[in-house]
Amino acid sequence: MIHDFTYLKPSSLKEALTMLEEHKDDCKVICGGQSLLIIMRQGLLVTDYLIDIKHIKELDYIQFDAKAGLKIGATTTHHTIETSDVIKKNYPVLVAMENKLASIQVRNWGTIGGNLAHGDPSGDPASVLIALKANIKVGNAKGGRTLTLEDFCVDFFETALEEGEIVLEVQVPTPEAKTGATYQKFNLLESDQGMVAAAAAVTLNGGGKCKDVRVVLGNAGPKPVRIKRVEELLRGKGYDEKLFAEAGKIASEDCEPVTDIHASEEHRRHLLGVLTKRMLKQAWEQAKG
Ligand SMILES: Cc1cc2nc3c(=O)[nH]c(=O)nc-3n(C[C@H](O)[C@H](O)[C@H](O)COP(=O)(O)OP(=O)(O)OC[C@H]3O[C@@H](n4cnc5c(N)ncnc54)[C@H](O)[C@@H]3O)c2cc1C
User: Fold this and answer.
1) Ligand 1 touching residue 34 (CB < 6 A)
2) Any domain includes 155
3) Which structural domain range is residue 34 located in?
4) Distance, CA of 249 to CA of 252 (rounded, Å)
5) Residue 32, domain CATH
6) Which of 2, 26, 36 should be mutated for ligand 1, with most atoms under 8 A from CB?
7) 76 in Cβ contact with 115 (< 8 Å)
């Protein structure tokens, strides 16, 4: 049962931030409600004020500039991202990820800001965006600040958002030349959250060696898990099947998955090793191409 609350519908960002400041001790932001309403219905969250930011047009945009990179406003829906030509052209991995996120109904209403602010370690966008070195802009009535998405994800359903702050924008730098990026989740039901997931981004130098690499695992710990030992292992090296096998082994060791009704910890570690190896190989091939 959902407890009573006062519903507030600001018509501008300024008004929303003022309302948040006024009620910051006992309010919650709602955007698409795809995650929030579930926990409210379960009685896990009770609030006096619900501030609905879904219709704030100032936060609904996709901008791209080769120098500045990609900027996605917080209230942009998953469907808008998956059908954006500019994202398709410059960040195909984001489109591929969004295509497999939930059902079309959820993608039509759920937003990128809501997804990231929810802090669910099985959420799809965070791992891919961290692999792409994304930043996130947050703000309150007093101003804004930008932090890496990696630092924004703090713990299981916990982010670096402070009282009165909301997510404003996701920022993704333009990938360097010769960069490939891939993402795959393993799930039993199409359109469901992944049992585990892996994202990889590989940049090659002129000689075909690894210049830079990121490997980020989803649902492999309380927040997206960057496998830095793999990144160190691959930097400066050439394409080598043995290295990818070693990378998979390290990834399965360096994550912290749990056992739950969907899978055991051991099974998750195995899957994460397989996906890491596969994503790295595919990202490398893409970077060469
Ligand atoms: C059936 C189903 C299947 C799903 N499958 C997937 C899946 O496969 N992969 C996946 O990643 N997700 C999945 N989800 C989750 C869903 O896609 C996301 O949670 C959704 O994008 C959240 O966006 P929202 O706008 O609906 O957020 P809301 O539900 O409105 O809010 C979620 C949380 O974020 C906060 N919030 C919202 N916007 C902001 C903001 N701008 N600033 C600060 N805080 C904010 C709210 O206060 C709340 O705590 C699924 C959900 C459902 C119902």
Assistant:
1) yes
2) yes
3) 6-52
4) 5
5) 3.30.43.10
6) 36
7) no
Number of structural domains, the chain? 3
Region 36-57: what's the mean pLDDT? 95
Task: Compute the distance between CA of residue 34 and CA of residue 18 in angstroms, rounded to an integer.
Answer: 24
At which residue do the structure tokens 């370690």 appear? 121
From the alpha carbon of 165, which atom of ligand 1 is closest? 43
Ligand 1 centroid distance, CA of 110 (Å): 6
- 66 burial class (0-12, 13-18, 19+ CB within 10 angstroms)? exposed
Which of 75, 86, 137 is CA-nearest to residue 109? 75
Query: What's the rounded Cα separation, in Å, for the pair 231 and 220?
Result: 17
| Beta partners for residue 277, in sequence order | none
20 close to ligand 1 (CB < 6 Angstrom): no
CA 3 from chain centre, in angstroms, equals 30
Ligand 1 centre to CA of 140 (Å) is 20
pLDDT at residue 77 in the model: 98
Atom of ligand 1 nearest to the CA of 185: 8
pTM to 2 decimal places? 0.97
**Residue that the structure tokens 């802090």 belong to:** 119
Tens digits of residue pLDDT in 50-71: 999 999 999 999 999 999 999 9
Token pair, residue 181, equals 């990026």
